[in-house]
């Protein structure tokens, strides 16, 4: 199978279910940003985090493929039978957050993104996640996408923040508090 199909040469692409849309359509922007987030997490994994963090990121990457398929498939196209993000995915994120937070010092101020290389990459991934979330919010006002994709991205950005803090903790790197000037 060839990598190039030439079907997108005119600036259109296919959704799951077969509908053709412009490549700059909001739905494409949304799942394209989810793909960008997945790549950002791949960069984070390339930093060789400890095994606990690596396992978490690997699972997140798998679930982002599910989210991408979900966003690429209009709800009216159930015949395409795509995987969908659901409450079990969201609960999994919450479980991870609940397991990591007690291992961290409570926050008393805002912190600047950064620290160890892995934490810095996780903070950058969190920013991409927030952008994806904003696009999904916008998409949800135009089309019925269900509530789970939006909730998932909101919770994922929380997890990425906690995971970045956890990476700094494991690496003995102090977080930098934000000081208003």
Quick recap of the structure?
58% of the residues lie in helices and 6% in strands.
3D architecture notes:
The chain has one domain: Hypothetical Protein Ta1238, Chain: A, CATH 1.20.1200. It is mainly alpha-helical and 181 residues long. It is elongated and about 50 Å long. Strands 1-2 form a two-stranded antiparallel ribbon. The protein has helices at 26-46, 51-71, 87-100, 117-142, 148-170; strands at 12-14, 20-22, 111-112, 176-177. The mean pLDDT is 91. Strand 1 and strand 2 (20-22) form a beta hairpin. It contains 5 helices and 4 strands; from the N terminus they run ββαααβααβ.
Order of helices and strands: EEHHHEHHE
Whole-number average pLDDT?
91
Helicity range of the residues?
A: 55-70%
Q: CATH superfamily, called what?
A: Cobalamin adenosyltransferase-like
- Percentage of β-strand residues: 5-15%
Secondary structure: number of strands: 4
| Dominant shape | elongated
Shape-level CATH architecture: Up-down Bundle
Radius of gyration: 18 Å
State the CATH class.
Mainly Alpha
Sheet with the most strands, sense and barrel status: 2 strands, antiparallel
Instruction: Note poorly predicted spans.
Output: none
Structural class: mainly alpha
Read across the widest sheet, the strand sequence of neighbours is 1-2
CATH topology descriptor? Hypothetical Protein Ta1238, Chain: A
What is the overall number of helices?
5
Distance between the termini: 58 Å
The number of domains is 1
